[in-house]
């Protein structure tokens, strides 16, 4: 069930921020009082909105309050390389339940999507919903947003052009939308994170790969073929390591899960870090997480790895900040848990190398949403769709 | 005189593309036939639109044609570092008259703006207008768009925070808007150039400096503090020449009017180019234009200078294309007249270094509008304002 016209859509999006009196809504939209009431009454008839008592008097007659229907339920599915998260929210996108499981993306779409649907089923059994009004899905790779399918995703064998949107929509019996993980994290920050009051911002995710969500005027900017924000293969310099893409000196070839693991292993073998050498001997391999733990213990070689990586992220980001002049930059993702050493290095390079006009008032911060950015953003994505005129 | 509501604004912008029958307009807008006629009749009363005879029959009664008032006049003023251009257009932004004069920006705002107004006066004396409905102004430096004033413009002594918009608006007795030269060139391309059907594109101007106009969804994207597109100080590498900004290896320190003149002089003195040596001896100095002429004559050293510059522009542009995924890149400005050698080098680097998804369908072209891009864009800027609800 979707709104019938643009006025109803505006009202639903306002109510997504919380219930309001009719008088308050009248102050916020460009509609006559009688037209406003017609639209609200119609939304109540459609089951999208419900009355919610009377507001405090503002001097005259008390105004009726309205809110989104208490029955409204959205689901968010956030599929990562090694995990799947699902959540159910109400119409205001408050998380009512959240489940997470390890899951290998390489098991393919049939298995992985079945896991997600099964997890959602558990939330249904807990009584959190009977019928979903929409589901948003995030995938760790390039997605054709209009078609709702992954497109040549490098770390997702078997997923290329699999009809994810169609399959999940059919399975759950509600509208579905699919986007890449970075875009849904950016939407999560826009809805519930540090970007709430910011129209134009960047969300840089540093994890297995490096990607960027671009928000222009409160909406995801996807570019003409949907690849906007794909910054992992931006050149840092010509003499750097060869990247999986075939070029040399790409950002991801320097910094990202695989590059960090490789550098950590080299450091461990060289004897420059007793901690990493010990971890390597014990576990047989090293990960970005090991570098983070080593750095937190004051391991000089690990801190140097993070600083070097931060400097390269900063160099790329400095260019993007000069070009895009955002109001905020949020750093997120697994490697972002390397924390304040990383942030300090990124800041230092961006503030030095970008134009003063672009950085004079630019906060560069670590995400505070953590793991829920993706699922909240996924529900935001689908609710933007459901709360738009059909 | 501006439209009274959003419907009238939409109709005016449609008519800016050319006159139409009421029936055709009815097919293009989301208005009932009777409401459409009310709004059109009101626009005729306001003097913004006029009747224009009857359309061919589409089967039934012949529909009345309408067009923008023949009295509508916009002016564009494009102030460069060494020249001033003015033009007067009708409501559809057809150029009715265009004058250009050499003029040194360093003479300061009072002198330069007086020159522009005097040039426009000549067009008035030719009978091209009696009253202007709006004027758009482009300046070769950073502009605070909301305030209509230049902000610390590096090559414009005496202009910092000079109230350009206010002064010109008062002098000409009509609304005025001021923007930087790159943004108005981008608007010119959007209105009359190669970008007519493209929502998201980049206009890269290579002249005395290097700048970029960013168009998102048919509108200039200015960033949160108005500095978006200021790409001249993006890092190419760390070991490059020291830039006027204090950093090293900026794009402008490699390529731009001053860098080209410097490299040409070095080449001339080294004896690697007899042509440039001769020009240097004759003129006492060399410019980017000399490099262009030498390259056109097949001078190997000049062609190498252009190739090296094109490679660096290409490296920066490759990053921006991966990030922004535009539908078109237009290269413009004085140095762009270096032409196809430059274009070939830029294309080669961008197509090799950007993501295949972003370049698969990406034309990179030289501007075909040339000198009029700025003045047409300036009239587009002000007509967008005049043709929006007040």
From TrEMBL, chains A, B:
Family listed: Belongs to the ROK (NagC/XylR) family.
Gene3D superfamilies, sorted: 3.30.420.40, Winged helix-like DNA-binding domain superfamily/Winged helix DNA-binding domain
PROSITE patterns documented for this protein: ROK
Species per Swiss-Prot/TrEMBL record: Microtetraspora fusca
Source superkingdom: Bacteria
Protein name, entry field: ROK family protein
């Amino acid at each position: 069930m979707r709104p019938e016209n643009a006025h109803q859509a505006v009202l639903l999006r306002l109510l997504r921020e919380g219930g309001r009196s009719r008088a308050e809504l009248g102050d916020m939209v460009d509609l006559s009082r009688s037209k406003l009431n017609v639209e609200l009454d119609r939304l109540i008839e459609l089951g999208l909105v419900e009355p919610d008592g009377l507001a405090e008097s503002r001097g005259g007659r008390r105004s009726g309050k309205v809110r989104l229907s208490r029955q409204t339920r959205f689901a968010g599915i956030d599929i990562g390389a090694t995990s799947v998260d699902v959540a159910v929210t109400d119409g205001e996108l408050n998380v009512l339940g959240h489940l997470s499981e390890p899951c290998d993306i390489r098991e393919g779409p049939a298995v992985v999507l079945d896991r997600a649907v099964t997890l959602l089923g558990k939330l249904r059994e807990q009584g959190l919903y009977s019928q979903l009004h929409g589901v948003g899905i995030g995938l760790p790779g390039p997605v054709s947003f209009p078609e709702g399918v992954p497109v040549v995703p490098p770390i997702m064998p078997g997923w290329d052009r699999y009809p994810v949107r169609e399959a999940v929509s059919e399975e759950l019996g509600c509208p579905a939308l699919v986007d890449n993980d970075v875009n849904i994290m950016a939407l999560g920050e826009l809805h519930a994170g540090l970007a709430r009051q910011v129209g134009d911002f960047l969300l840089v995710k540093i994890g297995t790969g490096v990607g960027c969500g671009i928000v222009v005027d409160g909406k995801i900017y996807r570019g003409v073929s949907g690849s906007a924000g794909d910054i992992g293969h931006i050149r840092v310099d010509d003499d750097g390591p060869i990247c999986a893409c075939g070029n040399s000196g790409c950002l991801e070839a320097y910094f990202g899960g695989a590059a960090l693991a490789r550098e950590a292993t080299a450091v461990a073998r060289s004897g420059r870090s007793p901690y990493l050498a010990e971890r390597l001997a014990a576990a047989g391999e090293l990960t970005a997480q090991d570098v983070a733990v080593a750095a937190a213990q004051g391991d000089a070689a690990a801190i140097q790895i993070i600083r070097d990586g931060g400097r390269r992220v900063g160099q790329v980001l400095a260019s993007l900040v000069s070009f895009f002049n955002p109001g905020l930059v949020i750093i997120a993702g697994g490697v972002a848990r390397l924390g304040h050493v990383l942030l300090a290095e990124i800041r230092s390079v961006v503030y030095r190398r970008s134009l003063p006009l672009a950085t004079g008032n630019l906060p560069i911060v670590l995400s505070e949403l953590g793991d829920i950015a993706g699922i909240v953003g996924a529900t935001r994505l689908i609710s933007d769709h459901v709360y738009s005129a059909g």
